[in-house]
């Protein structure tokens, strides 16, 4: 698996300016504005964590508070997009946490693909498309002829529009080895474009995990580092719905630091670090 250095991540708001304590009145006001402005329902997010991130985001841009941030975001399309990206956590890369992808490949993906039956995989919260293209590359390396359909969904339609272009700048390709670049991408003026075979494996769709119906069935669902700011009740409901969307023995693949406290209550059983299996 690739061991090249990962690209630098955006800073995680480490300003020394103290973050104000949660002001429930101001938070509710901000949540209403965010729903109107960005279409995001914060009622199932953890208020204290969202408040900390929003105020850190505002402070990093020289704004005094959340109210000012929302007002400026209404007037400034670039700030509005950055605000949306922050709330939907659009930070990722190809082959993020390589050891987890190694485990996924050897334990689950390879056995499925070598069965030569069509398989369906859902990348939930796909951001700029790093994850679905990572899956597509692995599938074609293991079994070039096995039919694979990858559903890639995200709440942010602007991010999805960028993902559909399948274009990545040089600094976004750090996780892709030279051999994979040569095999799966072509060099263009804008950077690197995923080849038509990979693109044909992926269907892109806007989807709100908290509000929209879930498709089914899938052999694998990847939802990595997407729901960390959801309330515990929202997570429990989401994991239960993921379970219902999996085939029996299907696999839910979470982020490296994520876990389900009581997986059996939602129909899942631990199947290794960051993996859960439908019972």
Task: Give a written overview of the molecule.
The structure is a single chain. This protein is α/β, with parallel strands linked by helices and 279 residues long. The model is unreliable at 1-16 (pLDDT under 50). A hairpin with a 4-residue loop joins strand 9 (268-270) and strand 10. The chain folds into two domains: 24-88, no CATH class; 98-278, Rossmann fold (3-Layer(aba) Sandwich). It starts with 23 loop residues before the first helix and ends with a strand. It contains ten helices and ten strands. It is 42% helix and 17% strand. Helix 1 packs parallel to helix 3 (66-75) and helix 3 packs across helix 4 (77-88). The strands form two sheets. It has a seven-stranded mixed sheet with strand order 6-2-1-7-8-10-9, sandwiched between helices. Strands 3-5-4 form a three-stranded antiparallel sheet. It has helices at 24-38, 47-60, 66-75, 77-88, 98-114, 130-142, 157-165, 178-184, 196-200, 232-245; strands at 119-124, 148-154, 167-168, 185-188, 191-194, 202-206, 218-222, 246-253, 268-270, 275-278.
Helix coverage percent of residues? 40-55%
- What CATH first level of the largest domain would be assigned? Alpha Beta
The H-and-E topology, N to C, reads as: HHHHHEHEHEHEEHEEHEEE
> Which second-level CATH architecture of the largest domain applies?
3-Layer(aba) Sandwich
Strands of the widest sheet, in order across it, are 6-2-1-7-8-10-9
**Count of extended strands:** 10
Structural class: alpha/beta
Strand percentage lies at 15-25%
Mass-distribution shape: globular
Mind telling me the C-alpha Rg?
A: 19 Å
Low-confidence stretches: 1-16
The CATH H-level homologous superfamily of the largest domain: Vaccinia Virus protein VP39
CATH topology of the largest domain: Rossmann fold
Number of domains: 2
């Amino acid at each position: 698996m690739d061991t090249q250095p990962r690209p630098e991540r955006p800073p995680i708001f480490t300003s020394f300016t103290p973050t104000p304590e949660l002001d429930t009145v101001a938070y509710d006001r901000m949540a209403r504005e965010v729903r109107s402005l960005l279409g995001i329902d914060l009622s199932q997010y953890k208020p204290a964590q969202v408040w900390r991130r929003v105020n850190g985001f505002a402070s990093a841009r020289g704004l005094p508070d959340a109210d000012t941030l929302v007002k400026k975001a209404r007037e400034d399309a670039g700030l509005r997009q950055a605000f949306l990206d922050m709330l939907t956590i659009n930070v990722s890369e190809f082959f993020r946490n390589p050891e987890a992808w190694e485990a996924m490949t050897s334990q689950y993906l390879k056995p499925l693909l070598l069965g030569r039956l069509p398989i369906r995989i859902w990348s939930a919260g796909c951001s700029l498309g790093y994850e679905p293209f990572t899956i597509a590359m692995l599938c074609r390396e293991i079994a070039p002829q096995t039919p694979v359909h990858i559903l890639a969904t995200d709440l942010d339609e602007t991010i999805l529009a960028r993902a559909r272009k399948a274009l990545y700048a040089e600094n976004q390709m750090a996780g892709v080895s030279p051999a994979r670049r040569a095999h799966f991408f072509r060099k263009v003026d804008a950077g690197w474009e995923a080849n038509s075979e990979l693109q044909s494996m992926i269907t892109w769709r806007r989807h709100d995990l908290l509000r929209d119906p879930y498709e089914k069935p899938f052999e694998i669902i990847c939802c990595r580092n997407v729901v960390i700011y959801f309330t515990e009740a929202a997570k429990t409901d989401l994991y239960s719905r993921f379970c219902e969307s999996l085939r029996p023995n299907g696999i839910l693949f979470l982020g490296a630091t994520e876990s389900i406290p009581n997986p059996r209550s939602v129909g899942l059983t631990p199947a290794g670090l960051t993996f859960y299996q439908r019972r």
